[in-house]
TrEMBL record:
Protein name per its UniProtKB record: PTS system mannose-specific IID component
Domain of life: Bacteria
Keywords, comma-separated and alphabetical: Membrane, Transmembrane, Transmembrane helix
Organism the protein comes from: Breznakia pachnodae
Family annotation (Pfam families): EIID-AGA (PF03613)
Listed transmembrane segments: 62-81, 116-143, 184-202, 222-239, 246-266
């Protein structure tokens, strides 16, 4: 079966990729921008099925956040999977995005922001301090060779490799195994974020005779960061029950409740 997407379509994905962060928000982060970048491909893939197009746009606009160069690779892979997978395998797309966005974000930050930028910045600054206008120009050119070039190559590479894999491995077990691995990796990343980012402590103490028991110390002995995990679980259950429809109100409510409990010395 001939591919529905061509080089012109991939170019559209590349140009839209550069505006992914314009729709950055605390509910879905880059989710809406990612869906918009992929929209030209989705419209072509599902040109004859409007309901499938709606489902695909909803599927691609869920929570997502990664480094922009990592976005390029994931965008290409997502386009290939949307084109070649059947209806029963569409959930694997979200699982793959979740599994890849964290590692590629860390890789992009470490290689581009913390390695390439300091190197070319030092070279450019040294030339500029010597009075040469070549310094800032050189830094701009070298940065965008990796920045812009990496984005374009990432989209094309992700699409071609994703397409090759899906065409050469018709066995659905391959996709299921990838989906399972991506789910496990995604859960590990989310679990790490909960343990390191969600901090909930209580200053309460219990006096028994001459002994003073600190509640937080007792909880840490049983299970460190237990309260953070418990609160995360409650919020997750609440959002899942309401299909994420009240995410913004939930965030505001948690902020107000946290301020109130801190004021009264509970937290």
């Amino acid at each position: 079966m001939a591919n529905k997407l061509n080089k012109k379509d991939l170019n559209k994905l590349f140009f839209r990729l550069n505006t992914v962060r314009l729709t950055l928000n605390y509910e879905s982060m880059q989710g809406v921008g990612f869906m918009r970048a992929l929209a030209p491909a989705l419209k072509k893939i599902y040109a004859e099925d409007e309901e499938a197009l709606k489902d695909a746009m909803k599927r691609e606009s869920v929570f997502y956040n990664s480094h922009v160069n990592g976005n390029a690779i994931i965008l290409g892979i997502a386009a290939a999977m949307e084109e070649k997978t059947g209806p029963e395998d569409k959930d694997s797309i979200a699982a793959l995005k979740t599994g890849l966005m964290g590692p590629l974000a860390g890789l992009g930050d470490s290689l581009v922001k913390f390695t390439w930028v300091p190197i070319i910045g030092s070279v450019g600054a040294a030339l500029a301090l010597n009075g040469s206008i070549i310094g800032p120009i050189l830094m701009f050119v070298l940065y965008n060779i990796i920045n812009i070039g990496g984005r374009y190559y990432g989209v094309v590479y992700g699409y071609e490799k994703g397409l090759d894999f899906l065409q050469n491995n018709s066995d659905n077990d391959i996709i299921k195994r990838i989906s399972n691995m991506a789910n496990v990796l995604g859960l590990m990343v989310v679990g790490s974020l909960i343990a390191t980012s969600v901090k909930v402590t209580v200053p309460l103490t219990v006096t028994a005779g001459e002994n003073v028991i600190e509640v937080q110390e007792m909880l840490d002995k049983i299970m460190p960061n237990f309260l953070g995990l418990f609160i995360t679980f409650l919020v997750y259950r609440w959002l899942k029950k309401n299909n994420g429809n009240h995410a913004a109100a939930t965030i505001i409510g948690i902020m107000i409740l946290t301020i109130a409990l801190t004021y009264f010395g509970v937290l």
